[in-house]
Structures are given as C-alpha cells and as structure tokens.
User: Fold these one by one.
Assistant:
Number 1:
Amino acid sequence: MHTAISQRATYWLMRVITYFIVFIIASIIFVILWNGLPAVSWEFLTTMPRRSGAEGGILPAIVGTLSLVLGTIIIALPLGMATAIYLSEYATQGRFTHTIRLAIVTLAGVPSIVFGLFGLGLFVIFMKFGASIISGCLTLACMILPTIIVSSEEALRVVPRSLREGSLALGATKWQTIYKNVLPYSVSGMLTGSILGIGRVAGETAPILLTVAAFYLPKLPRSIFDQVMALPYHLYILATQHPEPDKVRSMQYATALVLVLLVVGVNIVAILLRIRMRKKHRW
Amino acid sequence: MVDKKYSDDTEVKILVKDLSFYYGNVQALFNITMKIYARKVTALIGPSGCGKSTFLRALNRMNDIIDQAHTSGNVLIDDIDVYQNDIDIVSLRKKVGMVFQKSNPFPKSIFDNVAYGPRIHGIKNRKILSEIVEKSLVRAALWNEVKDRLGKNAMDLSGGQQQRLCIARALAVQPEILLMDEPASALDPQSTAKIEDLIDELRRDYTIIIVTHNMQQAARVSDFTAFLYEGYLIEIGHTDQIFTKPLEKKTEDYITGRFG
C-alpha cells in the first residue's frame, strides 16, 4: 500500500516536472508572439532601420545573420567532417586520439565571449581582416567545430562495422570504403547534427560583438570584408542601449520573433533531412 | 599428424607456415602449419574461440584492420608470401574473397551490391558490369529469384538470399579462393541446404575454406577438415578420415561430442 502511494507520487512529480519544461517554452513563445507579432510587417522585414532602429525595418540585421550562418557552415562543415573522419576512421585509437578528444571537449566548454576575444585578437587585429563578416564567420566556426566533430563522429559510428569489412574484403582501399560505403550512410546524420549546432550560431551575440556586428549600419554588406548588423546584437542594442527602450519595446519583440523563427526554421530543415534519410537507410 | 593420402594430393594453393597471431598480448594462434589444396573444400572445425575465424581472417589479412594486432609466420598463396611488406593488399583481397557469418549486404540495390567490387577495381562500362552481375548471380544460384528486381534494395531480400547475394558479390571480382566464415549459421535449414549445394557447385572452380560449427555440415561439404583447439591446429586430414578414424584423442573427443 505504502509503495503504491510513493510510486504514484513519484510518477506525478516526474510528470509535473516534464510539463513544466513545455510550459517554459510555451510561455517564451507566447510572450514573444504577443508583443512582437503586431510590429512584424512586410516593411519591417524588408526595409532599412531609421532613427537608430526606433523606426523602419531590420533588413540589414536579417541579411547579416543569414550571411554569418551561411559563412560559418561553409567554413566549419568541411573542417569538422574531415576531423571526424580522421579521428574515427584513420587514427589509431590511443593516447593521441584521447588527447585530441579532450581538446575538442574543452573547446566546447569555452565561454562564447572568450571566442569573441580570440577572434578579435587573431582574425580582426593580427590577420587584419578588421571587423567583418569573414572575421565573424571564422570566430563562429571555431566555436561550432566541436559540435560538428562530435555529431559527425556519432554519425560515422552508426554505420555498422560489417559494411566496412565487406567493402575491404572486396579489395577496396580504406578511402574507397569510406567514400562509397560509409559516407553515403552517415552524411545525413553529419549534416543534421551540424545544422542543429549551427542554429545556435544564429543566436550568438558575444562572439560577433567583437568581430563583426555593427551598432547601427543601415546598408547591406557588399563583400565579406564589410561589417554587418546581426539580429541578436540588434536586439541587445534596442533593449539596453537605446535612449528610450520602452518606446521601442515592440521593435525588440519583433526582432526576437524573427530571430526565433530563423533558428526554428534552420532546425526544421535539419529534422526533415533526418526523417527523409532515416527512411532511406536501414540495415 | 598428417596421413599419407592427404599429403599426396596435388597442387597446393595456400601454404601456411608457423603462423601465430596476437591480439595485443594475448596469443590467439600458435604456430599453425598446414597446406590447403586448390579447388577443394577445406573445413575448419573447433569449439567457439578456438581461433577458426582468426585463422580465416589471417589469410586475406583482414586482421590488419584490428589495432594492436600482430602476426608472425608465413602465408604463401601461389608461392607468394602475403605477409611480405611490399604485398598489394588490394590484389590479395581481390584474389581471396570472403563471405561473413552475418550476411552484410550493402544498403544499396541488388545490382549495385554485386557491381561494387568490379566498380572499385575500375570497371565503368555499364554493359560489362551487367554481364558480370548476371554471371555472378547465376553462379550464386540467385539470378532466377532476383532478375526482375535488380534495382530493389538488397535489404529486402530474405536472410538466405542475402547470404547468396554476398557470395555473388564476392564472386564478381573473380577470386580464386573463397573464405567462408560460418556462412549458414544464421540461416534456416532450407537456406542452409541451398548454400551447401552452392558450395558443392563452386568447388570445381574455387579453393574454398569454410569455418563451421556444424560437424554434419563439415562432413557434408568438405574434402578436408582441420580441427583447431585453443589456437592450435590439432589435426588436419581427409574429411572421411577425420570423422571416422581421427589420429588425435582430442579430435575424437570433439567430434563425438565429449566437449565443445
């Protein structure tokens, strides 16, 4: 009798805690929608900001964030995938790979503002890229590399060893085996994990603060060496640095809404990709 | 250890001399010496963990892919030592095909499975590939069952069909030797019978070495039988002799079911 009651109590406790998580997410979305939706309009999405962002739209920030996400993918994806392939397929597992994995885990734990400082020192000042899209992308790429490496390695590990052996036994070289019989079945997993990680890049503020983001720049970038505005930084400026933050409240929430939709959009692409690929491969 | 009749047989395909194998510090094979004759079926029997599979994988150097593994001794295939440093592993594995215990078709179409080997060895012409695929599937007694659905995913085949597909895939690169690691252990009796018939058919053209747990199977399909125990080769001889008058006490105990 007593155990039955504690059983039920535990069950309900777990259940309430789980619902609480859903509640948090739902409230965030509700608050953003409620406050932001009225200010979102075609004009808001497609025009330049005016009067320090108090009026007009957020087009340069949208373009900025999109170009940062795209640039980061282009830089980080090949590097991360190559590292993962080397680590899990080529390197002899031992002290050496152990050290590399430790480095990757540590890299993942470095606070993002430290990445910002690092990017400022290396890319902006030392390599003389200045505050620019390229500096920002390189900084974000460093930050996202651990995520891409870890998820890519996981995707490689899912491919059964028997497929590798079957290929090698037919006289395939190691690279032929990886290229023709491992990558085709793991590339979707690699992409999915990486894109989910990259979704986070869109929302990062600290690394771009020091390397690329412009306070107020109502024009579109012309090259990768230009500065741009970015959604998270623009939101931060509107919320804390604006002379009259209360008057631009709806602009803040509208910007937040666009940012959240962008991240959710990226994640949905990743999830759809995964579902599609899962249907295709089984063993 | 070796009876007279056994040593009189013609054409040695594989000569194993003093082969030892180590997983790190653990020795799995101890100084194995044996001859394997061309176009005969040699069965490897012995209790689990006796080193049958390890021995088999030593012949096409599949053990190389294990970190920390170490091999000593010689394996001469057509008088060439496959463990010398400058050996081309690709052509070795082309010559020595392998069929695994658990069928491992690639999650591709039936056609692409069989064409995989020829393609990696540089054949691009679709017509030639089609011919190879058909010939290999016919040889593996699978053609009639799959000829109308070569584009279908190989994972949709039954277990027995998958294993025959793996045999076809191995045949497609025109090997001379076929290593089979318990090829029927996961199959139902009917599929097993088909595989055994196939082995009987293939023995005319290929040198076959088959690992099996099943003593009746060894007796049915093989010309020669080798008994391995705890990493040692206890006895090898004509299958009839091994099963009727084994020379070693251990062999007799094993085949009569006293252990293992």
Number 2:
Amino acid sequence: MQIETMAMAGTLESSDVQVTVEPGTAGIELRLESSVMNQYGRAIQKTVLDTLKRLGVSSARVQVVDQGALDCTIRARVECAVFRSAGISDKNIPWGGVVQ
Amino acid sequence: MKNAVGREIPDKLLTGGKEVYQGKFHMDGKAYHKAGPVVRRAEKPQESKVLGSIREACEKCGAHDGMTVSFHHAFRNGDYVTSMVMKVLVEEMGLKDLTVATTSLGSAQDLLADYIEEGKIIGVQSSGVRGRIGEVISAGKLKTPAIIRSHGGRPRAIETGELSIDITFIAASSADDYGNASGTGGKNNCGTLGYAVADSRYANHVVVVTDTLVPFPNMPAAISSIDVDCVVVVDAIGDPKKIGTKEARVTEDPRNLMMAENCARIMAATPYFKDGFSFQTGVGGPSLAVNRYLEDYMRERGIVMGFALGGMGGNICDLMDKGLVRKLLDTQDFDTKAIEHLAAHPDKHLEISTSEYANPANKGAYVNKLDFVVLAALEIDTDFNVNVLTGSDGVLRGAPGGHPDTAAGSKCCIIVTPLVRGRMATVCKKVVTVTTPGDCVDVLVTDYGIAVNPARGDLIECLDAAGIVHTTIEALQEKAYSLVGEPDELEWEDSVIAILEARDGTILDVVRKIKPVEL
C-alpha cells in the first residue's frame, strides 16, 4: 500500500495512540514516543512495523505518540492512518484481507 | 548482598551496622539507647517566644551549612511552610549542603527540586517523593541517595538517632506565644499533628510556625511548649482545601466499588470480624470505598468497630457518628470533615503520634493491635511484594506511608488494585521496588479475581467456607500479561538514587538511576 498524503489516526487520550503517516523516501522512518517506553517500547515498535509490513507499506515517515495503548489499539490506529493516507478509509477497506 | 526479598543491596551501603532486610520481626527484642536532643535551657522567665520572622527564628536556632531540617506534611498539597522556610534558608541566608527530612513530599514542595538541582539541598529523607522532586532525584541530581522510610520507620530512625534533626519547623494551625501548638483552632486547620510529634521531642531546635496566635494556654496541644524554642507568626501556613486532592479521593467508579465490596466480604468472612474489631484503610480510591460496605456487615452482625487507625476521612467519621466506631486514632486528616470531626469529638476522635501509630522500635505500636488493613498498590508481584513508590518507568512518584507498618502489624492485610492500569500490569512477576515485603501481605483483591497468600492457609479456609471464589496470584499475573503483553524488564545504571528502608531500619531495596530505552 502506498502512503500518498499525510494522514493521522488516534488521539492523545490515555490508553490511546496517535499515529501519523507521511510519504517517505527511504523505507520506514519511525519516531516513537510512549508513556510506557521502558517496558513496552520495543513491543510497540514491533507491532507498528509488523502492521505496516502486513499492509504492504514499505516507505513512510511514521510518528507514533503512545499513551499506553494495547496492541489491538495500536494495530487499528496504524491501519486507519494508512487507509486514510491511501484514500481507502471510506470504502474498499480490505476486510478479511490485510485487515483480519 | 541479597536480602530476604531477593534484592541485591550494594555492600557499600552496609556500613555502620546497617543490615539488609531479613524478614519481618527480625529486630524484635533488640535493645537500644534512645537518642536525645541537645536542649538549650530557658530557665529565665520570658514572656513570649514569638519572633518577628522565619529568618530570625533560623538565626536564633543556629541555622548553618550542612544541617538537617524537618517538616511535617499534614497539609499535603496545601502546605506552604516547607517551601517558605527553605526559601529563607537557601535564598535569604545563602545556606548550602542542607538535608531535608520531611514526613512526605509532594507538588506543594516543587520549589525544593530547584534547590536540589542547584546543589543546595544534598539530602532528602522522606516517606513520599512525588512531582518534580521525584523527577530530579530520579535523574540523579541529588548528591546523596534519598532515604525513603515508612511513617513508622521515620520515628524509629529519629528515636534511635539515625535521623538527627537540627531544626524542625512545625506548621501549626494554632499556637500560643509559648509554643503550645495544635492542628485545630486556627484559620487554616489540618487536624491532627501526629506526624510532627517525634520531631518536636527529638529535634535540637523546634520552631512553631502558625498563622493563628491564641492566648496561652493553647490546650490540649499535640506539640508541647516545653519542647519549643520559638514561635513565628506568618500570614498563612497552608490551604486545607488542598489536603484532599489527588492521592486521597473517594471513588464512584463501579469497578472500584466492586473491589471494595469484595474487600468487605472477605473481612466479614474472617474470625477477626467481631465486636471491637479494628481497621485501617489506605487513601486509594477502592480502599477508601471499603468503609461504605462495612456498615452493612456490621449492622447485619450487630457489631461495632473498636477503633479505626491511621489516616481519617469523612466516611470513617460518618461511621463513628452512626455509632458504629468507638474510637478513631488519628495520624492524618484527609478532608475538612475529618479535621472538624477531630476538633468536635476530643473524647473519641483522638490525635496520636506516628510513633504510637507504627514505630516498630517502641514497646508496641498500635498497628500491632490492628485486625484489618486495606491498602492500594502500584504493583504487586507473584511473591506478594508490593511497590507503592516507583512508577513503571522507574521514577519516584509515591510513598510507602503507613503501608509497610500496617501490613506487618495487622492480622489481615488486603491489597486492592485493578489488575491493569492502562497498559501497566499491576499484578506482575517482579515489582520495580519492594516497599512492602510479601511476607506481610495476606490477600489480593483485583477486578479480575481474588488471591490469598499461600502462607495464610487459615484465610483460604475462611474464604472457602464463605463461598468467596479465589484463584492464585500467578493466574492473575498471567491474565494481566495476556491483556497488556509481557513487559520488558527495566534497565538501570549502577548509581543508587534512593534507599528504601524497611520499617525496622534494614535495607529493603534500592532505586537505581533508570537507563533510557534505546530502540
């Protein structure tokens, strides 16, 4: 999936995560902030990268500001940001495809 | 050396007879000499001890570089006096290398963080370390490791001479010109002054700071004028409205109420729940809420609580007013209702010192007479060790308070906490810092189930007989990790930023400087 425009999903509320994606040039450039960095920073990074890979995103600038979101929330916010960027968040969401 | 809760204590801290924690009651029966203050006689009659300013009082008491000063925190987030006095010592008098030994620290004392960063304050001894002070200490900016003690451990350290105080500054809601001082009878009342009693008797110099000067004799008074060097009158000593904020809050959250109800059910299922039983709650939401459910069980059984101990809120005062509690033994008032109640009922709502409350080195603190205590936790691990001091990021942001004292003294210690908070697993494999050792903790109540310490087979039988479903703490920990994922272990640098003393004075744990995560 291609990151076409800057798009955002999620909020800065407690237990949520705000994900911003922008077109990039050299692979995935991830910037991560988290209120639970010490214990879950690596896990969050892995979830974000795995989700992008599953969606076929190979090039993007991604900013993640996490407030202690669970994995399912992180996946959903990343998916939503990517779909918004690719212009498919209103229709043609690949339910049953890359979105399980 | 590794201690009884499996924590590695650096050998360099084990000097001067300092030992590692070796299990509860290890120091029982040990004899010691009580320390005594250096007292300057006031034999020649003086009409009044009132001085014109804090600075004058500091000068009269010989304030100097390198000294230790102390304060109480009965005003909690509404305290003005600690910052007011430290500002005089540091900014007006230019003193340095100071140690601040308070009963607790919070956001009201944020100014002290600046003095720590400037190197003016080089030592902190406290129960609580929160707010900016917690952050700067955690960042390694305090010259010596902070010493964290429980409310019972502090008077123990004072009375054994481990903590020697040069000058104590006691914020008092009312005082006479000779220094008889009270937490009531003034324009800004905090209620009991139980935190300050040991300081008043053992500090070399005692300064009473009040905003309400009353005619002599101001009695009854927690602080006796025979211990007081001088009195200073200021505009305001604190804001009582800010006592009840943040830490001490009453919950309406149905999840908290459900847990509170389970705590009351468990209490009612034990043999200790009989006429004259005794009880304490912590100040966390669910633990405070237990009070409201106790009433039903007491009425049903036709029994009355003998005494409630420790910090008092309006809800326990209500229970007393309904005739369900005989005595309140009060070390701290958490709201205006409790403050007013203390003043209105001197026959049964009684002010006690923290030494009477919880000092393990006297001849029997009141916590030893406690049947039940219900306490909160930031974390509890599968060995039932509790952390109420450090956040999951390794930063100091809490306080042991009376937690370790009441847990050790009581017959049934119940920890109540949600299984997870956001992404933090409250029930975990290993707590960041051990503040209350697991051998003192009996039951864990969470929103996902109840676990009993296997060491308490008697309580397991009680719960089974009452049909209260329970599981293992390991099962609760696994449930927590299944929801939030298994956390990485925190990574630390070598330097110790805080020493956590067990209530008996041994070293229970240390807090090291946290290493930032590199992804």
